[in-house]
């Protein structure tokens, strides 16, 4: 398989989405309004991970582009839980892509303790061979959810998906602690935002 050719449109999509989402963040800053977006990261799934996921889910190679929905992945990290839903609403109102699926792992936390809001979109991208519509996944989460997910992801990698029970139990406790941190911060959100406005004005 010519992976370079297959992944080129995904690289383009990831770059375009990064520019657009960073643009949204900058517009909030120009208007001196609280930005619901703290930072953005993005990646194209490495070939090794694509092949591992395909094997695990028994996806034939000719169905990879339709069945693996996160080859292009963008992550939006927010300060507060409310911000996640502001970002979701803003993404819903955009005209440059179509949302085909939404998964709210905040209201419906995963068994692992994972929390995040996922959107699967169809994004039209111009290539030198014409227009191509590719799938991309946007993950929207708070800083606390991101901290937890990053650490859990590393442990999953280390233990090849079989995290020992004791560590799993600690991860569950950590997930609850992260959730409480988000809840507590939400309660003093107005105070924090006011303080940050004063700070930025200086
Ligand atoms: P990577 O290495 O991040 O790319 P599903 O069949 O719906 O359960 P699907 O289709 O993979 O699974 O979608 P889902 O559940 O929305 O997960 C897609 C991505 O979300 C994952 O990609 C992770 O990035 C993240 N994710 C989902 N569940 C967890 C979790 O329990 N812990 C962590 N840390 N991340 C999670 P990949 O391809 O698994 O991994």
UniProtKB/TrEMBL annotation:
A biological process term (GO) from this entry: guanosine tetraphosphate metabolic process
Top-level taxon of origin: Bacteria
CDD domains: NT_Rel-Spo_like (cd05399)
InterPro entries xrefs: GTP_Pyrophosphokinase, NT_sf, RelA_SpoT
This protein's record includes keyword Signal: no
EC class name: transferase
Keyword match Kinase: yes
GO molecular function: ATP binding; GTP binding; GTP diphosphokinase activity; kinase activity
Pathway(s) the chain acts in: Purine metabolism; ppGpp biosynthesis; ppGpp from GTP: step 1/2
Keywords associated with the record: ATP-binding, GTP-binding, Kinase, Nucleotide-binding, Transferase
Pfam families: RelA_SpoT
Family annotation (Gene3D superfamilies): Beta Polymerase, domain 2, Nucleotidyltransferase
EC number(s) recorded for this UniProt protein: 2.7.6.5
Residues in RelA/SpoT domain copies: 42-163
Assigned protein family: Belongs to the RelA/SpoT family.
Assembly: Homotetramer.
Protein's name in the database: GTP diphosphokinase
Organism: Ornithinibacillus bavariensis
